[in-house]
Amino acid sequence: MALQALQSSGVTFRRILSHFPEELSLAFAYGSGVYRQAGPNSDQKNAMLDFVFTVDDPVAWHSKNLKKNWNHYSFLKVLGPKIITSIQNNYGAGVYYNSLIMCDGRLIKYGVISTSILIEDLLNWNNLYIAGRLQKPVKIVTMNEDITLRSALDRNLKSAVTAAFLMLPESFSEEDLFIEIAGLSYSGDFRMLVGEDKTKVLNIVKPNIAHFRELYGSILQENPQVVYKSQQGRLEIDKSPEGQFTQLMTLPKSLQQQINHIMDPPGKNRDVEETLFQVAHDPDCGDVVRLGLSAIVRPSSIRQSTKGIFTADMHTKIIPDGMIRRLEFASK
Fold it and tell me: Reaction(s) catalyzed by this protein (predicted)?
């Protein structure tokens, strides 16, 4: 499985994990504190460490974490673990973030998501939020033997490649591909329109080509629709209508439905397969896919950021200099 190449035995991450309840199906670290980025987030030493914890039973996990780390939570902690879990699952993108936490000498932020909701996002791209984060290099700190979760993680990577292929020309470079993949979960993200560095995706990809290659190399080698010249860093794909239709039919369900909604004229009520067949023959196929992605990402990013106002409780915490912008966009 491609993700195994990025597993980490880093002592720093494991020491931080020791401060939390152990019942985690998956824990990973990500962002500029883990992988070097170009641009304004290039200072790894002082960067905040970002984590996501995946749990089978969020109520039980939050109950234990409230006992161990009461001060991590905002004012919502007084409502108890059941309400916190309800907020986590039912608002935003299914993840609950505690931000600006000093833990083992490092400033961290961590999100909690239920295993079942993560699997749904990985397979169907309901929100493309944590699924989008997992399309970029991450450091997996711990992962259990859940076959369904592992399979969904792998499926998410393959779906990312397919979506990127549909938005690329017949011939392109590895860097072109990885830029498209890294940008999938930023398509339509309102934060990219309100002051965020427009070169963010480039800053993620350029210093980490080798890590992207580790993540996607075997998928590209095994994909029958691509000629992958790894030595030259070049790829060629089938851009025929038949090839594009095959790719469209394997896209995650939510993206297919959004494409159908965009292309289906009022009153027609065509089924998804008929719409995808039309899109496959459309010279603007890639643009349609991009619009479908935006229709998923934009509402989920707005809802999740709104939820963050209540879960972060920043007025009770001292924010170090230079951390505010880092916090605003670190959740992806």
Answer: a 1,2-diacyl-sn-glycero-3-phosphate + CTP + H(+) = a CDP-1,2-diacyl-sn-glycerol + diphosphate
Does 323 fall in a domain? Answer: no
| CA atoms lying within 13 Å on the CB side of residue 299 | 10
Question: What pLDDT, on a 0 to 100 scale, did the predictor assign at position 325?
Answer: 41
How would you list the strands of the sheet with 49-55, edge to edge? 95-103, 106-114, 49-55, 26-30, 139-143
Burial of 19 (0-12, 13-18, 19+ CB in 10 A): middle
Q: Measured between alpha carbons, how far is 138 from 108 in angstroms, rounded to an integer? A: 15
Mean pLDDT of 128-154: 95
d(CA 170, CA 165) in angstroms, rounded, equals: 9
- The partner residues of 98 in beta bridges, in order of sequence, read 110
Range of the domain at 144: 1-310
Q: What is the mean pLDDT of residues 48-56?
A: 95
| Residue 266 CB contacts under 8 Å (≥ 6 apart), including other chains | none
The pTM of this model reads 0.87
Does residue 328 belong to any structural domain of this protein? no
Structure tokens given for 111: 């999100």
Q: How far apart are CA 160 and CA 247, in angstroms?
A: 11
Q: In angstroms, what CA-CA distances link 313 with 75, 101, 305? A: 7, 11, 13
- CA dist., res. 271 & res. 248, Å (int): 14
Give the total number of structural domains in the chain: 1
How far is the C-alpha of 214 from the C-alpha of 290, rounded, in Å? Answer: 25
User: Is 66 contained in some domain?
Assistant: yes
Res. 218: pLDDT tops 60: yes
Judge whether 141 lies within some domain.
Answer: yes
| Residues 90/67, Cβ–Cβ less than 8 Å | no
Among positive and negative, which fits the CA dihedral 187, 193, 198, 201?
Answer: negative
Spatial contact of 76 and 83, defined as CB atoms under 8 Å apart: yes
Q: What is the mean pLDDT of residues 81-100?
A: 91
